Amino acid sequence: MALGKLNRLELLVDLYSEVRIPRTVYDEVVTRGLIRGAPDAFTVRLFWQRQAWPIVDIPEANLATYKPTVTLHRGEIELLAFAQMLNDPLVLLDDEVARTEARRLGLRLRGTLGILVQAYRRGFLSFSQVELLILEVAARPDIWISAKLCQQVLDSL
Predict the structure, then answer these.
(1) What is the tens place of the pLDDT at every residue in 117-156?
(2) 91: helix, strand or coil
(3) Is the dihedral of CA 4, 5, 6, 7 positive or negative?
């Protein structure tokens, strides 16, 4: 969602061969986002259509066997249940409670800031570009990543 808000979804193409999204997450971001009039919902929909990346329906049997130890939203539950079905997935996730659960499950994960740092380190963004994007993340009230964390990441670069 944050990369859609930043209009930098192309970094997913630069860094990963394919990104799969559970239908519940897609519906939350795109379908309900379009109803709310969120401009990033339109961006994500166009991007996903252009990439023809999968929108995945998670089998109910998999959902029934996954019991999170914390309270998660339906989309996070589906994402983590789906990740457990895959061989060594990289889970893209920002919510700290969901990240803690992903770590408990032994999943590799990366958030928006990690994607921006990876894009910088791989040469897809210059330092001034990644700095501006991270400062934007810190300043935007519709992206729920703390300014303190943003500053820590900038300091590390």
Answers:
(1) 999 999 999 999 999 999 999 999 999 999 999 999 999 9
(2) strand
(3) positive
Place of tokens 């499950």: 105
3-state class of 110 per DSSP?
strand
Work out the pLDDT band at 71, boundaries 50, 70, 90: very high
Among the listed residues 84, 92, 71, the one whose alpha carbon sits nearest the alpha carbon of residue 18: 92
3-state secondary structure of 20: coil
Scan for tokens 């994960």, then name that residue: 109
**Please, what sign has the CA dihedral across residues 135, 140, 146, 148?**
positive
pLDDT for the residue 69: 93
Alpha carbon distance 71, 32 (integer Å):
21
Architecture per CATH, 2-124 = 3-Layer(aba) Sandwich (3.40)
At 66, list the tokens.
């996954």
* Model-wide pTM > 0.90: yes
Cβ-in-10-Å burial (0-12, 13-18, 19+) of 44 comes to: buried
Name the segment(s) of the chain with CATH classification 3.40.50.1010: 2-124
DSSP tag of 16: -
Between CA 96 and CA 116 the distance in angstroms is 18
The structure tokens listed for 81 are 């249940």
